[in-house]
PhoD-like phosphatase metallophosphatase domain-containing protein
Amino acid sequence: MERLVAAVLAAGVLQVLLATADDHYLLSRIAFGSCANQSAPQPIWDAINKFDPQVFIWLGDNIYGDIRRPFIFLGKERTIGPWQNAPRFIPSSSSEMLSRYNSAKNVPGYLRLRAKAKVVGTWDDHDYGLNDAGKEFSAKSTNQRLLLDFLDEPQDSPRRKQAGVYTSYTFGPPGKQVKIILLDTRYHRDPLSSDGSVLGDSQWSWLGKELRGPPSAITIIGSSIQVISNLSGTTGPLFYMESWGRFPKERDRLFKLINDSKRDGVFFISGDVHFGEITRYDCAAGYPLYDITSSGLTQAVEKVLPSPLRFVVRFLAWFTPSTMRVKNQNCRYRSCTYGEPNFGAIQINWDASPVNLKIQVRDINGLPVTGVDISLSELQAWNRTIKAGQDQRHCTLEVKLPWIVRYRLAILVYSVLALLLLALVGLICAVTLACRVCLKKCKTD
């Protein structure tokens, strides 16, 4: 324990040194992740520590601070179904939020990471305070302070005086600088069905200055929700997920801002969805925009089913159309998604000519499950090397697919349910008929 405390104190010194020496700190290894339930085992920190990142980026749901109520179908308070009349999620008190942050901050593997890496981050809904919440959430200013305390943000930091937790960092000497921009997709976000604002006016103004500011070799934009993928366009009306795609005007504005800024070397990292994947969009800027999604450190879609049935999740992931997902030989599964605990890993080879980026989603053992190798020259508008066929593949948005393709998941599910219903009706009829025959025979006897 004494060694652990000493390591944490050393981490504080390291944070100060990095904060004052960013301009000369050559950054070559970055890890990132999201969706870490403080009450669940977190063995994945061993793999993250083995990767030995210089910077770790939290992308939201750093804790699960709200309270999830059980599924209740009947009764006075029904939390699920078309007859739902009570919320499934409710906020915690600030004292309970603090307790959960303290639990997360003292996970041994995370303590070891803090001792040797700079930790930065933003939030998503569950650490913001309420599932799917936006600007209407009343406890957002209090919870902002709790998040910044969790991240060891200095007391005189501008983040403690502004509305929202957005920020940026720049690492490295001239010519080899990495800029990390972290967005706040909660504090100013309009309702999901509004197609309103995600960032709010003040954050949009700030982001424009950041992108038009001094150039950097690489610019990483961290968003708690997915930027490129819009799976809600193909999973509806069964279920919907949060993403920039549900705010098409805002997403177009984001793409246009990147394009107009003429900034090269931009890509996104994101979390939220409880699976890992890599997506790209070739028709937003003068070069492909990638979005590497890592989710989650503890939460994962396959964990909702027993091990023998997890093939169902993998089949549905493969069957759901995704026009933006990168599918290559680096994928462990055919769907090129990964529904078990994972983290993101970025390696920059500054000695290569041109500079090379290896970006991966890795499993609990630190092994890659999907990834891309990108030459930095590919992320420059003047050196466009994409072929026409690839352009077409990654330029068709999910919402523009033919309806029979776009809704094939819903068609499959409803068809299976209809067949099961018919089978049930048939079974009832067969049992009823058998009972009548048996009764008739008994009367005859």
